[in-house]
Amino acid sequence: TTLVLATRNQGKVVELRDLLTAFDVVGLESFPDAPEVPETELTFAGNALLKARAIAAHTGLTAVSDDSGLCVDALNGMPGVLSARWSGRYGTAAPEGVDRANLHLLLDQLADVQDFDRAAHFVCAAALVHPDGREEVFEGRMEGRVIRAPRGANGFGYDPIFEVAGQGRTAAELAPHEKSALSHRGHAFRALAASLGA
Ligand code: ITT
Question: Catalysed reaction per UniProt (predicted)?
Fold first, then answer.
């Protein structure tokens, strides 16, 4: 099966290629005219479906997408589906700069939040849309807490400030295979791969 990765986030692409080795995977760089899809839904699953449907329709191939984010208990689940757009920088600067701005905004917002109240979890919705219109969504989740200063150089996005439950290390301190074994994205995409018989 050929799968088109309906994402422009390079941090995701690296992890997804590793999770989908059983398939022939092509990236959006092969489709320069692919549409930008506004994320107008209020749920991870809704946004993931919007992205995969648009790319399946454009390419005529089976598309997979990832909508993900960090939900912080002390912020009533925010930034959640707004995780990429939280700082208002999205699309206006290089992705690493946007990630850094988002991460520091979150640290600022949690500055007065006590250690015991810093629980958070990542969510990933993995959508699978076939050109004939069949579609499915798989969700995965990873528990942890937001620490006070970044640690670690791996991964992307909020990884350096997210200490993974039971690990004593941030997601950015895990090796890539360790992160995938535990992560929201790993759980969601292993289920997606299994549904395709991998
Ligand atoms: P596409 O829509 O093109 O896939 P995007 O970057 O816009 O890319 P999202 O809307 O799903 O993707 O935003 C995901 C946000 O959640 C973004 O700010 C990420 O940095 C963050 N995020 C998701 N998974 C993460 C992970 O495993 N580690 C750290 N941050 C993560």
Answer: dITP + H2O = dIMP + diphosphate + H(+); ITP + H2O = IMP + diphosphate + H(+); XTP + H2O = XMP + diphosphate + H(+)
Task: State the angle between helix axes of 95-109 and 10-19 in degrees (0 to 180), rounded to the nearest 10.
Answer: 100
2-195 CATH, one of 3.40.50.1360, 3.90.950.10, 3.30.465.10, 3.30.70.120: 3.90.950.10
Q: Cα–chain-centroid distance for residue 70?
A: 9
Query: How far apart, in Å, do the first and last CA atoms of the chain sit?
Result: 10
Dist. CA 69 → ligand 1 center (Å): 6
8 Cβ inside 6 Å of ligand 1: yes
Q: Is 115 a catalytic residue?
A: no
Check if 85 has its Cβ closer than 6 Å to any atom of ligand 1: no
Model confidence over 137-162: pLDDT tens digits? Answer: 999 999 999 999 999 999 999 999 99
